[in-house]
Amino acid sequence: MAPLCSHVLFNIPLDITCKIRYNVYMYVAVVPNRNSPPAILLRESFRLHGVVKNRTLTNLTHWPAEKVEALRQVLKGNLSPAERLQDAFHITRSWPHGHVAAVLGWLERLGLAEVLDRQPSPLRDRALALIAHRLLEPASKLATARALDPQTSHSSLGEALALGEIDENDLYRAMDWLVERQPQIESALAGRHLSDGTLVLYDVTSTYFEGRHCPLAHYGYSRDERRHNPQIVFGLLSNGEGCPVAVEVFEGNLADPKTLAAQITKLRERFRLQRVVLVGDRGLLTEKRIEEELRPLEGWDWITALRAPQIQKLVSAGALQMSLFDERDLAEITHPDYRGERLVVCRNPLLAEERRRKRQELVAVAEKKLEQIAEATRRKRQPLRGTERISYRVGRALGATTVAKYFRWEIRQGTLHYQRDQARLDQDAAVDGVYVIRTSVGAARLSTEEAVETYKRLASIERAFRSLKSVDLNVRPVHHRVPNRVRAHVLICLLAYYLEWHMRRALAPVLFDDEHPGEARTSPVAPAQRSASAQRKAREKKTLEGLPVQSFQDWLRDLSTIVKNRIQPKLKSLPAFDVITRPTPSQAHALKLLQVAL
Fold first, then answer.
1. Is there a single domain that holds both residue 77 and residue 166?
2. What's the rounded Cα separation, in Å, for the pair 327 and 324?
C-alpha cells in the first residue's frame, strides 16, 4: 500500500507511513495484556545485518474493530490501487435531503410537534409528515404514502421522522386524529399570535370539489371559475401581520356573511378574547352583520368598507362631494346612518382610470351583442320573433355581465329597441376610484391614515389564499368524501402555510418578497409601490453579495439537490454510512438565514 493512501484512509501519522521501505513488512499485531484487553499494535518487520527485527509504529487499541480489520486487509494487499478510491464503495441509495432539513428544522423551531400533541406518538409523526410533505411536494394521500415509504421514498423525510413502512390508510388515520385536535391546535396558535385588543383579519374563499358524494360539497359562487363543479367554502383567521391562526370549512353554498357568527364565537369562547378589532371586506362585514353580531358586543370594533350602493347614497345625500379630493386623496366624514363610526373617503386616480376603461369595454361588448339581436329581429329571412325568445336572447347577452343596468330596452312590434342609460353611466363614473373605509375605532387609537392602511392588510389574506390554492400548497381540487377528512385536508394546508409564512420571513433577503413594504408609498391611498431594494432584486436577480434571488419554491428545489447518500464499503466487515452533499455557497447562505444545520 502507498504511504499517502494509508495516511488518508486510516489517519496514520504521516511521519510513520513515510518509513515504509521495499524491504519492510507492516502488520497488525495482537499482544495479550494479562487481565486487560489485548493491545492492538501496528508494527513493521525488517531485516538488519541479516537479523529480523520488529518495531512498533503506533498503538491501535482505541480503534474500532472494523477499522483495524480494514487496515489488516489493506496491509495484506487485498485491495488493488483502483479499489482504494472510487471502486472501494457502493452508493446504495440517495435521498434529496436539504429541503427536508430546512422544513424539519423549522417544524422544530416553531414547536409544531408540541402544538399538535405534547406526547410523542406514531400518529403525531405521521401528521407532521403530512404537513411537511404538503409544503415540499403537494400530492394526494396515496402519492404521499409512496413518497414516505422506505421502499419508494422520494426524500429523506420518512427516514428523518422514523416513520417506517407506511400506507395511505395510516395517513387517513393520522388525518382523523389531527382533525379531532383542531380546537386545541388553533387555541395554541391563537395564544401565540393573538391577544386582547389585537387586530384580527378574516376573509373567505372557495375551492372546487371533485365528486358529488360529500355533504359539504354544494354549488355556489365559484371564485375558481368552475361553475360545473360543486365546491366548499373556508374562512381564514390571521393576526394583523397575516400569520394564520385558524381555518374553518363550510358548505359550498353558504354566503360569506353567514360564516361570521362562527368566527365571533371562536374568538370569544375558544380564544377568550374580550377586545378585538375585526377587519373584513365589504362583502363579509355587511350592515346586517355589524348591527346584529358586532355592535352588541362590548369592546369589539371593526374595520370594513362601504358597498357601491351605500357610496351612491352618500353622494345623493350630498355627504360625499368630489371637492373633498381637491387637495388630498382621502378625507374623513361622519353621517347619521353610521352612528358612532368614522368614514374615511378615499380616491385612487389610477383605480378610477382602470374602472372607467373596463366599464367602457364591457358596455361596448354588451352593446354589440344587443345590436346583433336587434338585427336578427329585423332581418327578412327567418327573423327572430316572439317576445319570450327575444327576451331570452337579451337575458343571455346581459345576464352574465355587470353592465345590464346601463341599458334600457323594450320590444315594440316584434323588434328590439335599446339605448344606453347615460345618466346611470355618468352617475357611476363620478365615483370611479372612490372607496369608503368604515370603522368604529376612535381617532385617538387609530388615525385616518392608519385606518386605510389597516384595511389594506387584508391583502395578506389574499396572498395566503393564492399560496394555499395554487402557488405552493395546492389545496384544490379536493377529492375526499368524508366531511372530517375534508376539514383535515384544509387544516393540513393551513399548518403548512403557517410553516411557510415563518420560513419566508427568514428567507426574505434571497426572495423576491419586499422586505420593506410601503416604504416607497407617499399616501396610504396611493397604489402600492415596491421598495428600491425589492426593485433591485427583481431587476438583477441577485443580492448585494452576488448570491441568487429565487422564489420560495425554487429555493426548496435548490436545497433538494443537497443529497444524503447511503455508502456501503466493499469490505463486508465495514458498516454502511451516510454522506451529505456539501452545500454550494448560495445554499449555505440560505441555510444560514434559516438557521438550519444539515
1. no
2. 7
Q: Does residue 439 form part of some domain?
A: no
pLDDT of 21 reads: 44
How many structural domains does the chain have? 5
Residue 379 is classified by DSSP as -
Q: Are residues 474 and 558 in the same domain?
A: no
For the stretch 54-96, pLDDT in tens is 888 889 888 888 788 878 877 877 655 445 556 678 888 999 9
**The whole model's pTM is what?**
0.81
Residues 321 and 199 in one domain: yes
* 503, part of any domain: no
157 three-class SS: helix
Neighbours of 484 (CB within 10 A): 16
**pLDDT band per the 50, 70, 90 thresholds, residue 12:** low
User: Whole-angstrom Cα distance, residue 161 to residue 340?
Assistant: 55
| Boundaries of domain holding 368 | 350-429
H-helix or E-strand containing 388? helix 387-399
pLDDT, residue 22, reads: 46
Instruction: Note whether 418 and 367 are same-domain residues.
Output: yes
Cα 434 to Cα 431: distance, rounded to the nearest angstrom: 5
The CATH number given to whatever domain includes residue 229 is 3.30.420
Same domain, 211 and 321: yes
Question: Domain ends where: 157, 180, 203?
Answer: 180
Q: β-pairing, 415-420 with 407-412? A: antiparallel
Same domain? 471 vs 586: no
Cα–Cα distance, 255 to 204 (Å, whole number)? 10
Whether 54 maps to a domain, the answer reads yes
For 82, the grid coordinates are 483502483
Nearest-angstrom CA–CA distance, 478 and 483: 11
Pairwise CA distance, residues 495 & 499, whole Å: 6
Backbone angles phi, psi at 428, to 5 degrees: -75, -35
**Could you tell me if 411 and 387 are in contact, meaning their C-beta atoms sit under 8 angstroms apart?**
yes
Q: Mean pLDDT of all residues in the chain?
A: 88
Closest Cα partner for 160 from 97, 206, 227? 97
Nearest to 439 by CA among 424, 430, 449: 449
The helix (run of H) or strand (run of E) holding residue 207 is strand 198-208
Per the CB < 8 A criterion, the answer to whether 376 and 420 are in contact is: no
DSSP letter for each residue of 310-333 = HHHHHHHTTSS-GGGGTT-SEEEE
CA atoms of 343 and 434, how far apart (whole Å): 12
Report how far residue 498's alpha carbon sits from residue 134's, in angstroms, rounded to the nearest whole number.
12
**Interval 373-389 mean pLDDT:** 90
Confidence of residue 247 (pLDDT cuts 50, 70, 90): very high
Angle 14-19-25 from CA coordinates, rounded to 5°: 120
Q: Are 259 and 250 in contact (CB under 8 A)?
A: yes
CA distance 456 to 528: 10
Domain match, 152 and 209 both: no
Q: In this structure, are 391 and 311 located in the same domain?
A: no
